[in-house]
Amino acid sequence: MTEPAGIGPGARPWILAGTIIASAMAFIDGTVVHVALPALQADLGASFTALQWVVNGYALTLGGLILVGGALGDRVGRRRVFVWGIAVFALASLACALAPTSGALIAARLAQGVGAALLVPQSLAIIAASFPKEVRGRAIGIWAGASAITTALGPPLGGFLVDALSWRAVFWINLPLSALAIWIALAHMPQDRGARDRGAGETAGPLDWPGALLAVLGFGLVTLALTLASEADVAAGLLAGLFLAGLAALAAFVAAEARAKSPLMPLSLFASRCFSGANLLTLFLYAAFVTALFLIPFELQSRRGLSATMVGLTMLPIGLVIGVGSRFSGALADRIGPKIPLALGSAFVAAGAGWLALSLAGYWAGIVAPIVVMSCGMALAVAPLTATVMNAVDEARVGAASGVNNAASRLAGLFGVAIAGSLASGVYFAEAGAAAGPQARFGTLPPPGDPARATLEAAFQTGFSAALLLAAAFAAVAVVIAWRLPSASREVVP
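The chain above was modelled as a monomer; its predicted structure follows.
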């Protein structure tokens, strides 16, 4: 077995550990903050719109820039960009932990997403470059399994930290992990030179910075319009202006991609109905799932009175079920094709979201069971969905296809939280009426015994149920798309 150039004996376990630690931080911070939302809302006096942006800010910059991160690593060196990404992520985590206001926290979360967009694409690229083909698959499997397990453990750990210390501890923990990952990278990962240092800059093509900026601007403006839609004092003209400006920026993004020498999103990929359909399915399926993840902690802590630790433990099965079940669903799709697993998985997510919308009184029947059903649905769908995207393009273009699909899943959560969150808040204030009061916020209920508790709790349930029914509708659309997907083998994009 031949070692890749520059990799000394015994370095590979360190390389694997460093990539797992760094990528796990980025994955965990996409979900663990959900557990801390009620606590930081109370501490910072944040509006529900601000909470949506605490989640969406991270997803926006990560989803909008992740393709740039991958391309930058190819050009200037993967280890270099990997370390840059970890450093940005660590500094942004420090800013999150010290944030005095919700606005400062949102800005820091945007910066966190930039760091994650730099480091995440390098993790698999570094493994691929550091491990011989004979063991590369096993290394990637270890990375994927460890990442799934650490991501699953994120919410329980976050809940414990919130209860034992503060919501700020959720971000403090990233600092020692970042330091360890940077040390491993500098001590054990070889310094690759990148395409420009090898004299391949012309063939690699320039980075598509205009496309990246237009994508972030367009998605950001549309999301801002959607999240502000539930605010009673926001003028309709402002909302329309933001929405139209976002659409204009997205149209300019598409036009820029058509002209770019090295586009972030090669439009020719969408010539395949299978590729287009799979990414459309990704948008609806992940919008449903991430919306549920965003709303569940408010139901558990605000209405049911559970501690943050219990919320984290309640959400533990999500990562475990998806991590374990994806191995089997991938094999199933290989045998019978992806259509049935994708349709059935999407149907499970729709059923789980609809079940949560019933807001049943019992903890096991009302919360745990539908969470497990949704998790089983995602476990059925994730691997076949990825395989469908990869199989729809020629081998030379799997990197671009994977990047587009990764961005689609991140941006799907962005829109899901914006639309369903605004619906929940809008319904809540419409139902609560005068009982809400000037300081009321969706997700914050007065203590039991307060005269307004019953009215506000009923309004909260109505808003929560409306948003979960919308999530179920998103997943139901994914079922229809899955059933109508053509066979990838019949139309591979060259």
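Residues 266-494 form a domain with the Growth Hormone; Chain: A; fold (CATH 1.20.1250.20).
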